[in-house]
Amino acid sequence: MAHPLQALRDVMAEYHIDAYLIPTADFHGSEYVGAHFACREYLSGFTGSAGTLLVFANWAGLWTDGRYFLQAAQQLEGSGIRLMKQGEPGVPTIEEFLRQSLQPEQTLGFDGRCVDARTGRRYHRLTRQLGAKLNHQLDLVDEIWPQRPPLSAQPVWELDEQYAGLSRRDKLAQLRRAMVSEGADTFLLSTLEDIAWLLNLRGNDIPCDPVFLSYLILTKETCILFANPASFSPELLAELEVDGVSLRPYDNFYAYVNRFSPSQTVLLDTRRVNTTLLTSIPSHVSVLDRPNPTELRKAIKNPVEVENMRRAHLADGIALTRFMYWLKTQLPQDTTELQAAEHLEALRRADPLYLEPSFDPILATGAHSAIVHYSPTPESDAPIQPDAFLLADTGGHYYTGTTDCTRTYAMGTLTDWQKTCYTAVLRGNLHLAAAVFRTGCTGLNLDYLARQPLWDLGLDFNHGTGHGVGYLLSVHEGPQSIRWRSLGKEPALAPGMITSDEPGVYFDGDFGIRLENLVLCMEKSQTNFGTFLGFETLTLTPFDRDAMDPAQMTPQEKALLNAYHARVHAAIAPHLPPEEAAWLAQATRPI
Questions:
Q1: Residue 379: how many CB atoms within 10 A of its CB?
Q2: Using an 8 Å Cβ cutoff, are 396 and 371 in contact?
Q3: Contact 405, 316 (CB under 8 A)
Q4: Which residues of the chain fall below pLDDT 70?
Q5: Using CA of residue 245, residue 249, residue 254, residue 255, what is the dihedral sign?
Q6: Which residues, in sequence order, are CB contacts of 125 under 8 Å at separation 6+?
Q7: Would the CA dihedral through 98, 99, 101, 103 be positive or negative?
Q8: SS3 letters for 297-322?
Q9: What 3-state DSSP class applies to 388?
Q10: I need a labelling partner for 448 at 20 to 30 A (CA). Which of 26, 149, 477, 574 fits?
């Protein structure tokens, strides 16, 4: 049997496709995808969560971001696929590359269900300008992938209102009012996290993201959910019917959309719906392209969600602190990265409200810590090295919310340079957490606070400083972020948003450091000059005093660290056995 890449080229030739695009995507624009949609990984061998493969008859390239440069370089070696480092000098975007490479009368192809409508429109304009052609109705990977995993259809379950904070009926009423205010009578929703949030439902169709494959159409009178009926119990279907939600088969969605009437005005977000979906709407139907009204409502946690998230982070902090105690005092010789990850998972599972990891654990020793999103596998698993860093980026889903924390631990004696770098990352984390800013500021306004200690040393990190976090949904949630490079129109930070604070620094082949807490945006004060916001740090586990150089910290930075460690000790110590509580008192003692 031919190698998958050659098999794809063979079928491209059959369909007269000269360039074929394979993004990391499902039909819903999800960041992480289920096994059925792992087409890019199947063709390239690259296992990172983000990347787009572009294949020509005699050339192939994979575009990915700075989190994955080292990993992609290793996994693409010998594949004949060129690594295209997004955002780096001299590296064209996919569209720029196509503009240079696609010839008149040639055809660009992709599966339009896996490319968002806004991007699909740009490719359509590009091919038209080049005198080329576009075919977005081909799933060529399906033709060459034997035993391709089927679409997932795991059970769907209900998130009780004591966790969600607002009933499904109330959320639907809010969305109907928003739809009407936009001048629409139909709202079309395809993002899985938004559907799960709106209906207070959860599933397991994507690993580490408790959602279920579905589409939703809301009108003033009806709410139709398109999903696999086998995933719903009779009891859950009855509860949905009571709230006016009817279920139809997942596969019937596109045919239903194709029957929209000329009198309808449809609200949708072309950044979120896919190309095939948009082109399935008859041309005589009015379409309003607006941000999904669910997006901001989901990002701004309600008071019940906020209080639950505090509870989740207390439970998570207990597990993380016990893990740090184990690393520092009880680590068996030759313990590997995977074994350490399993131990931390067992500590999290001790909480009765814990469900599963919120992403694949990143446990990285020594040089592995320089690979930003390295997750150990049986092939790469390494013993935890002495006198080196261990980077642990992990998180959990609880009924009470979602967590995401990174700590970098000193596993012995460090060099002065390692301590300098750790201290700079720590200072950046503390600066951002202590920010006070006016209403209307975005993450672009705050990013410098986290990077300034590193920039002073001529150092930097090639990933965002902060991402939103969902409530028992995706650990990466928009629309807010903290970064210095704009991705377009940036939303203002608002009370109730939960965002990560995670500066880092990485040295290829040597070591990496990242320190991450989740912070809750909240109102600080109102003055004659306006309303001022700030953050409450939710994550509760120590930073490693063995890795820092207090002489490089200002009195204010020391005060911030001491205040944080006092909070950690007060919250966590009562839940620990006596010997661990005594250790924590030392680990959080003032500097």
A1: 5
A2: no
A3: yes
A4: 1-2
A5: negative
A6: none
A7: positive
A8: HHHCCCHHHHHHHHHHHHHHHHHHHH
A9: coil
A10: 477
Contact 578, 552 (CB under 8 A): no
Both structure tokens of 471: 């409530």
Q: Residue 178: what residue type?
A: A
Strands (E), 35-162: 52-56, 60-64, 82-85, 107-109, 133-135, 157-158
* Beta-bridge mates of residue 215: 226
How confident is the model at residue 489, as a pLDDT?
81
pLDDT value at residue 439? 97
Contacts 24+ apart (CB under 8 A), 95-98: 95/122, 95/123, 95/126, 97/54, 97/61, 98/19, 98/54, 98/123, 98/126, 98/130
- What's phi and psi for 149, nearest 5 deg? -60, 140
Asked if 488 and 408 count as a contact pair (C-beta separation under 8 A), the reply is no
Residue spans of alpha helices (H) in 330-442:
337-349, 416-433
Q: Give the three-class secondary structure for 408.
A: strand
C-alpha 323 chain-centroid distance: 24
How far apart (Å, rounded) are the C-alpha atoms in residues 503 and 451? 7
User: At which residue do the structure tokens 């990915």 appear?
Assistant: 64
Strand order in the sheet with 517-527: 436-438, 530-537, 517-527, 498-501, 466-468, 477-482
What is the CA 414 to chain-centroid distance, rounded?
32
The count of other CB atoms within 10 Å of the CB of residue 343 is: 18
Residue 1, pLDDT score: 52
β-pairing, 107-109 vs 133-135, is parallel
Q: Look up the pTM and report it.
A: 0.94
Q: Could you tell me the two tokens for 570?
A: 């007060």
Q: Distances in Å between the alpha carbon of 224 and those of 175, 219, 239, 248, 386?
A: 14, 9, 14, 7, 57
* pLDDT at res. 518: 98
Tell me the residue length of the chain.
591
For residue 103, the model assigns a pLDDT of: 95
Please enumerate in sequence order all residues whose Cβ is within 8 A of that of 234, keeping only pairs 6 or more positions apart, or say none: none
What are the strands of the beta sheet with 186-189, ordered from one edge? 245-249, 223-227, 214-219, 186-189, 265-268, 286-289
Rounded to 5 degrees, φ, ψ at 146 are -70, 145
3-class secondary structure, 53: strand
How far, in Å, are 223, 226, 377 from residue 333 at the CA level?
57, 52, 20
